[in-house]
Specification:
- Belongs to the ribose 5-phosphate isomerase family.
- There is one protein chain.
- This protein is an alpha/beta fold.
- Strands 2-1-3-6-12-13 form a 6-stranded mixed sheet, sandwiched between helices. The protein has a 4-stranded antiparallel sheet with strand order 8-9-7-10. Strands 4-5-11 form a 3-stranded antiparallel sheet, with helices on one face.
- The protein has 8 helices and 13 strands.
- Bound molecules: D-4-phosphoerythronic acid.
- D-4-phosphoerythronic acid (DER) binds next to α5.
Length: about 230
Amino acid sequence: SMKAKQLAAWTAVDQHVHPEYRVIGIGSGSTVPYVVERIVSQGAEANKNRVFIPTGFQSKELIVSSGLTLGDVDQYPTIDITLDGADEVDTQLNCIKGGGACHLREKVLAEAATTFILVADYRKNVEYLGTNFKAGVPIEVVPFAYAKVLQNLHQVLNCPKASLRMAVAKAGQVVTDNGNFIIDAPFESERMKEPYTIMAQIKMLTGVVEVGLFCHMARAAYFGNQDGSVTIKW
Ligand code: DER
C-alpha cells in the first residue's frame, strides 16, 4: 500500500543518504518516487552539488521532474549509493527485480554503487523468493536469441512455463529501454531457494543480457508495514 512504500523509502533515505554523498543512483518502480521525494526534502543546499543517475526512462523522468541534476553513468562509473525497489527480497537479501523490465540498468547501477539499498512494502518481504512473486525470474534477452533462450529454458533448465512477456499498452511483446525482450521464467519453489545457482545457469545461455536475480548485492532492505512500522533486513 502507498503509505508502506513511503515509510520504507523515507526511512532508508534518512538512514543512508548522507550529506557527503554526491553521486546517487535512482531505480525504477512505484516505491522509488518516495525516495526522490525524501531526497528533495533534504533541501537545495544538500542537493546542489549532487548528480542523480537513472536506471531508465521512468527513472530519468522522475529525476528531471523533481528538479534534481541528471548525471550520466559514463561520467560516474562509481556511484556512492543506489536506491531501488524490488519484486521480492529473501532473508539473505537476494532479490527478484525486473517486474518493471528495467533490471539490466538497475543491476549496472547496483554493482557500480558502494552501497545498494532496497526499498519496498511488506509484500516483498519473504523468506524464500517465489513466495509472493509468481510471475517468474525476469530475463532480458536480445531479440535475435529469444526463441532459442525460451527453448533452452523449457528443455535444458526444466522451466516449462517460461514465456515471452507480452505488452499491455502496446500490441506485441514488451521492449526494454535497451531494445531487448523480456522472458519470465517461473521455477518451482525448491529451486528458488538457491537463486545464485539459477542466476548463473540462465546467465550462461547465449543471448541472455541480464537476469532479474540480484544475489549478495544489497547492503540493506527497508520494508514498510501496514501498521506503520518498518522492517529492516541487512
Ligand atoms: O522492476 C523492478 O525491479 C522495480 O524495482 C519494481 O519491480 C519495484 O516494484 P515497486 O513498484 O513495488 O517498487
